[in-house]
Structure formats: structure tokens, C-alpha cells
């Protein structure tokens, strides 16, 4: 297994966006996703695009990496556009092929919806590109903090997430080991009809599950031996802090929102 | 020397209908000593470790750690005093990075952050892993992971560290690495050490050895005394080191080896002075 294996799609860096508190990023993305639906003029769309693309550029992540990451959704974006082109029949006839008329309304609508889609996906993928999974976990734990009052197990949830993240590479290494061991005993994972290939997965999954449960038991024992007794009275090494940078970004974002409502038609 | 741990007629079994895993075991561990517990699989040696920090509680007899009886109420205090390193390097690594893992125990005990930062540095330095702070576990070797596990235990500043077969899953290089780390740590800090193993080579440097067999205390003494009982050790399924076997063969061949050698150097010493002793 390569040592460069990364979980998720995090790209290390030291840009402004990388250094932001993960809670700031999540909050801004949440509100961005909401306000995207309020844009309805060229100017307002332009403003949001400027904000999103500006953020993307400031991360210093190579553009082709970003575009490649969005590859699976390009299809959806284009499909949305074409669908609107065919279905929406408003405005003047733009052009017609054979007897089918295409309208300007459909063209504009399609463009707007596709752009919305693109903006949403770009901004949300910036979060996972610039934030390590463990930072996201910390942010979620911190932001769900108030739910502790209604006895929602916030700490346990965060711990579960971080332990899963910790064990993903371990279990992947194990899967590789087991599949090699089974292949050496003649299990064929690659060829044959689909039904046989699905059957071949069983001797892979069973040992994997057995070992995962064994690991879980040993891990629980090790955690207990190290004094783990739930979230009560626990301190944390990793600290989240809202800095001056976060405040500036919040101010900038509020300006964008004001700008959006001024440029709406 | 004061005693740090005392077992008083301790018996333990996992379930009512099962045989005793430990039967009337009594022994003491002194402050600052290195005690090695050896025994065959199923001799109860790992159970002893789990009893010492309250992962298991005995059905009969009592265990005293630093004068405190181990029971439901005291286990959290006892776990601060007694740290444990387990066999599988992967299954005791809780944090996503080395730094987080070392901090885990301290976070549990609610230590302030400034102290944690300091202790993370010092304990990683003690095991020679300072340059790996932000490494994820899958980028470390087994030996390195075990060193991190030792650092995590050291960070809580316990008075006793138990290594429960901590080298069993490592390659020879990793095993040497860990034994060397343990030796250094014990030399530089005031702590008692218990190593649990079935490999007799690992007990040579210990101050005292406790041999367990079928849930009973079978033999206790310093390593030399224990090795002298090599035939009996073989009988209970423990493999003696090469030097011990060689010494036995030499004795059988008529050479007069007076002192049980613990390593090659000592055997050599015996052999080249052999003639002058005759």
C-alpha cells in the first residue's frame, strides 16, 4: 500500500482557506448553499461566481486537479442544461432544429441552474480539499456542542468518526492482505461471470469482519486501560480557535450577501 | 525497597463454570524494579496484567496497588498509576496521528493543554520518536507503533508500566528496538516495569523473574536462578536461550561450568578461565 494514500481528497497547503477554522468554513458554506438560490440576475450570479472562483483560486490547488475532481458531476451539470433547453418553453424562439423549437427562456434557465449547480459543488468540494477529515470531525463536535443539553451523544459521535478515519487505512491494508491470501488459495476475484465474482467476495468479507470485531474489542480494552471513561471531564489537545482571519472572512461574506440582495432584480 | 503491587491469594476465572485461570497467586512487585513474568500460553500471565489495572477484577483475594485495593471505585486512580502496552501495535493506536495518540491518555485524565503539549514532546523524545509527530499509524512500522504506545503510557506519568507481550508481533529488529527503548526508559525514570513474555531471551536484563504455570506461581528468582532450572523450564514448554542450551551441553560433555551464563560474553568468560579453575 502506498504511503501517500490520503483519506478523502485533502490537498495539503498553507493558503488562507487552509488556515481558516473549519467551523468558519462549514458555516460559510452552509449559508452560501442557501443564498445561491436567491440569485436571479446576471449581476448577482456574477457576484457569487466571483466569490466561489476567487476562493478556489486562493487555495492554490491546481485548476486541473479541481476540474478532475468535479469530473463525475460535469455530466450532471451538462445534462441539467440540456434538459432545460428541451423542456422550458418560455420567451422567444431562439432557433429550431427540424420542427422542434428552442426558446431563449430555456437557454437562460438552463444556464442559471447549471451555474448554481456548479457553484454549489465547487464550494462544498473546497471544504474537503482544504480541511483534513479530523478537522471536520472536530468542527462537527464543536458545532453540535449545544445538543449535549438534550443528551445527544456528540462526543461519542465524534470519537466514532475519528476512530473510523483512523482505521480506514488499516482495514484497507488488511483487505489487501486477505485478498492476496485467498488468491493464493485459488479464489479468483477478477474473471468469470458476475455471479461468481460476487461469490468470491464472501471469503474476503468474512475474515475481514471477524478481524474488525477482534480489533474493536482489543481497541476498547486498550482505551479503557488508558483511562477512557467517556467525554465527561476530558480535555483536548487539538484546539479550534476563531482568529482575526476568520473574522475578516466573515465580514467579506456578509458583504457578499448584502451585495447579492442589492443586485437582485 | 517498598512494595508497589501486592497480590494476596488472588484467584480468577472468566466464568463460573470455567476452571480457574489463576489460583491463589501471591507475589509482590517492588518500586523501581523490573519484574519479568514468563509462562506458556494459558499460564495466566496476561490475566495478571489485566488484574493489575482493573481491566479484570479478582473473584477471591485482593490486589493492592500503591496501598490502594483495586475495586470498581479505585480503578480510575489506579489506571493513572499503572500504564499498559498491549501485544498488537495496530489495535491500541487510537489517535489519527502520533501526536494525537500520545495525547489520548492525557485527554482522558483531563490534563491541561499546556502540560499535554510539553509531555507529548518529552515522552516522544524518551522513545526516540520526536520526528514522527504528525505521522499517521499506517506510515509507521510495528516497532515504531509500539514505541509510540510506550510514549503514550509515559505521557500520563505512571509509576508502573506493564508490557503485555509487547514484542510478540514484531520482527527481530522491532523486538530489539523495543527492548532497548524499555531499558533506556527504565534507566532514566523512576518507574517499576513488568514485562510479560514467553520468550526467555527477554528476561535476561530483568531484576527478577516470576515463572507462571497453569495459573500458579511456579518459580521466582533472579534470571540466573531461573535459567539454572532449564530442564524444568523445558518441561513446562518454555524454550531456553541458545547460550543456556550450549552451557548445558558443555556441562554434559564434562566441562565444569560453575556460573549459569546469561549471554555469550559470560559463557566466553567461563570458558577461557576454565583451565585456571581446574
From TrEMBL, chain A:
Question: What Pfam families does this protein map onto?
Answer: CbiQ (PF02361)
Look up the domain of life of the source.
Answer: Bacteria
Membrane topology value: Multi-pass membrane protein
What InterPro entries does its record include?
ABC/ECF_trnsptr_transmembrane, EcfT
User: Which spans are transmembrane here?
Assistant: 28-53, 65-87, 107-129, 247-263
Q: Which UniProt keywords apply?
A: Cell membrane, Membrane, Transmembrane, Transmembrane helix, Transport
| GO cellular component annotations of the record | plasma membrane
Q: Name one GO molecular function term.
A: transmembrane transporter activity
Q: Report the subcellular localization.
A: Cell membrane
Q: What does this protein do?
A: Transmembrane (T) component of an energy-coupling factor (ECF) ABC-transporter complex. Unlike classic ABC transporters this ECF transporter provides the energy necessary to transport a number of different substrates.
Q: Which PANTHER family match?
A: PROTEIN ABCI12, CHLOROPLASTIC (PTHR33514:SF13)
Binding partners and assembly: Forms a stable energy-coupling factor (ECF) transporter complex composed of 2 membrane-embedded substrate-binding proteins (S component), 2 ATP-binding proteins (A component) and 2 transmembrane proteins (T component).
Which family does this protein fall into?
Answer: Belongs to the energy-coupling factor EcfT family.
From the Swiss-Prot or TrEMBL record, give the protein name: Energy-coupling factor transporter transmembrane protein EcfT
Organism, per UniProt?
Answer: Thalassobacillus cyri
Automatic annotation (TrEMBL), chain B:
Q: InterPro entries, from UniProt? A: AAA+_ATPase, ABC_transporter-like_ATP-bd, ABC_transporter-like_CS, ABC_transpr_CbiO/EcfA_su, ECF_ABC_transporter_ATP-bd, EcfA_1, P-loop_NTPase
List localization entries.
Answer: Cell membrane
The organism sits in which domain of life? Bacteria
Q: Per the record, GO CC terms? A: ATP-binding cassette (ABC) transporter complex
Molecular function (GO) terms listed?
Answer: ATP binding; ATP hydrolysis activity; ATPase-coupled transmembrane transporter activity; cobalt ion transmembrane transporter activity
UniProt xrefs under Gene3D superfamilies: P-loop containing nucleotide triphosphate hydrolases (3.40.50.300)
Q: How does it sit in the membrane?
A: Peripheral membrane protein
Which parts form a coiled-coil structure per UniProt?
Answer: none
Query: Keywords of this protein's UniProt record, alphabetized?
Result: ATP-binding, Cell membrane, Membrane, Nucleotide-binding, Translocase, Transport
The ABC transporter domain extends over: 5-239
Family (UniProt): Belongs to the ABC transporter superfamily.
Question: What name does the UniProt record give this protein?
Answer: Energy-coupling factor transport system ATP-binding protein
Which organism does this record belong to? Thalassobacillus cyri
Amino acid at each position: 500500500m502506498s504511503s501517500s494514500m490520503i483519506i478523502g481528497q485533502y490537498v495539503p497547503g498553507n493558503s488562507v482557506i487552509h488556515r481558516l477554522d473549519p467551523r468558519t468554513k462549514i458555516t460559510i458554506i452552509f449559508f452560501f448553499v442557501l443564498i445561491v438560490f436567491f440569485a436571479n440576475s446576471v449581476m448577482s450570479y456574477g457576484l457569487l461566481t466571483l466569490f466561489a472562483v476567487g476562493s478556489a483560486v486562493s487555495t492554490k490547488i491546481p485548476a486541473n486537479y479541481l476540474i478532475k475532481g468535479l469530473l463525475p458531476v460535469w455530466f450532471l451539470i451538462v445534462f441539467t442544461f440540456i434538459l432545460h433547453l428541451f423542456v422550458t418553453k418560455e420567451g422567444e424562439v431562439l432557433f429550431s432544429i427540424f420542427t422542434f423549437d428552442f426558446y431563449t427562456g430555456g437557454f437562460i434557465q438552463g444556464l442559471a441552474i447549471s451555474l448554481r449547480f456548479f457553484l454549489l459543488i465547487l464550494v462544498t468540494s473546497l471544504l474537503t480539499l482544504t480541511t483534513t477529515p479530523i478537522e471536520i470531525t472536530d468542527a462537527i463536535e464543536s458545532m453540535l456542542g449545544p445538543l449535549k443539553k438534550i443528551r445527544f451523544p456528540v462526543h461519542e459521535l465524534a470519537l466514532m468518526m475519528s476512530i473510523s478515519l483512523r482505521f480506514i487505512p488499516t482495514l484497507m491494508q488488511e483487505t489487501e492482505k486477505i485478498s492476496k491470501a485467498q488468491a493464493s488459495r485459488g479464489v479468483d476475484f477478477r474473471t468469470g461471470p458476475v455471479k461468481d465474482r460476487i461469490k468470491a467476495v464472501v471469503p474476503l468479507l468474512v475474515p475481514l469482519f471477524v478481524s474488525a470485531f477482534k480489533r474493536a474489542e482489543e481497541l476498547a480494552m486498550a482505551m479503557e486501560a488508558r483511562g477512557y471513561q467517556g467525554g465527561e471531564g476530558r480535555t483536548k489537545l487539538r484546539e479550534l480557535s476563531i482568529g482575526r482571519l476568520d473574522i475578516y472572512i466573515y465580514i467579506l461574506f456578509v458583504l457578499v450577501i448584502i451585495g447579492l440582495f442589492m443586485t437582485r432584480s | 525497597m517498598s512494595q508497589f503491587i501486592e497480590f494476596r491469594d488472588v484467584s480468577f476465572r472468566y466464568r463460573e463454570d470455567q476452571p480457574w485461570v489463576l489460583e491463589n497467586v501471591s507475589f509482590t512487585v517492588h518500586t523501581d524494579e523490573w519484574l519479568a513474568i514468563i509462562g506458556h500460553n494459558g499460564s495466566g500471565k496476561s490475566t495478571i496484567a489485566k488484574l493489575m489495572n482493573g481491566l479484570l477484577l479478582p473473584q477471591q483475594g485482593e490486589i493492592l496497588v500503591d496501598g490502594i485495593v483495586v475495586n470498581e471505585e479505585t480503578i480510575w486512580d489506579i489506571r493513572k498509576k499503572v500504564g499498559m502496552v498491549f501485544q498488537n501495535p495496530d489495535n491500541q493506536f487510537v489517535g489519527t496521528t502520533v501526536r494525537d495518540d500520545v495525547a489520548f491518555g492525557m485527554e482522558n485524565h483531563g490534563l491541561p493543554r499546556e502540560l499535554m503539549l510539553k509531555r507529548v514532546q518529552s515522552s516522544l523524545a524518551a522513545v526516540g520518536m520526536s520526528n514522527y509527530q504528525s505521522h499517521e499509524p499506517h506510515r509507521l512500522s510495528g516497532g515504531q507503533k509500539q514505541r509510540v504506545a510506550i510514549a503514550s503510557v509515559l505521557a500520563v506519568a505512571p509509576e508502573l508500566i506493564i508490557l503485555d507481550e509487547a514484542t510478540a508481533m514484531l520482527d527481530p529488529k522491532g523486538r530489539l528496538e523495543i527492548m532497548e527503548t524499555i531499558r533506556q526508559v527504565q534507566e532514566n525514570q523512576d518507574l517499576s516495569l513488568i514485562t510479560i513474555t514467553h520468550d526467555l531471551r527477554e528476561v535476561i536484563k530483568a531484576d527478577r523473574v516470576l515463572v507462571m504455570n497453569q495459573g500458579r506461581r511456579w518459580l521466582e528468582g533472579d534470571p540466573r536462578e531461573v535459567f539454572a532450572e532449564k530442564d524444568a523450564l523445558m518441561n513446562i514448554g518454555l524454550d531456553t536461550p541458545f547460550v543456556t542450551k550450549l552451557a548445558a551441553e558443555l556441562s554434559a560433555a564434562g566441562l565444569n561450568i560453575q556460573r549459569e551464563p546469561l549471554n555469550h560474553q559470560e559463557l566466553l568468560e567461563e570458558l577461557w578461565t576454565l583451565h585456571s579453575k581446574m
